[in-house]
Amino acid sequence: xxxxxxxxxxxxxxxxxxxxxxxxxxxxxxxxxxxxxxxxxxxxxxxxxxxxxxxxxxxxxxxxxxxxxxxxxxxxxxx
Length: 79
Hints:
Blueprint: H1 3-8, H2 43-70
């Protein structure tokens, strides 16, 4: 068993989940005017933030590769 499977498995435990993006459906952090207490992040919220951050970094790397391949100087033809 790969260690990643413990953390990234789907809820049905049949396959590894790769969905790291932010899901507004799971966001329950909307505050009301009468909420005066300081909010505390749960481990689940911290994990979701980390996954969203990792997803953002992966998207930036893919875009950078695309831009580099687009604007790369063409190879000189053999003489």
